[in-house]
Amino acid sequence: MNRLKALSLGLGMLLAGTSIAHSAEQMDFSNMDCNEIQTRKMLMAGFNYVFRDKAYRAVDAYDQKTLGRGVDKFICVGKYLLSTSQVVEYTYEYQLNSVGEPITSFKNLKVISSEW
Length: 116
What we know:
The protein is built from two helices and four strands; from the N terminus they run ααββββ. By secondary structure, the protein is of the alpha+beta class. The chain has a four-stranded antiparallel beta sheet. A hairpin with a 2-residue loop joins strand 1 (58-70) and strand 2. Helix 1 (3-16) packs parallel to helix 2.
């Protein structure tokens, strides 16, 4: 599967908030790089969707590192510049649970600075 399509599907599931059974087609993230521009754009879109009820949004995603990748697994950690001028570090994870359903999440690690 095309790696951009795989990430789009992974983030699409996150955006849809779905936990439906995984399709027969596996998603291969083996060649994905969290710091590529298209990947960072999709991470920002996913971040903004997840936190859409907050008074802030991500205006930049940078220094993204790939912590894990492979078939049905993709993990990134990196910095997000928020519209409040705060810089925060989050981890994005896509993986399957024990029954084959996708789990996607953003986990806050720390506030880097209150001003960019």
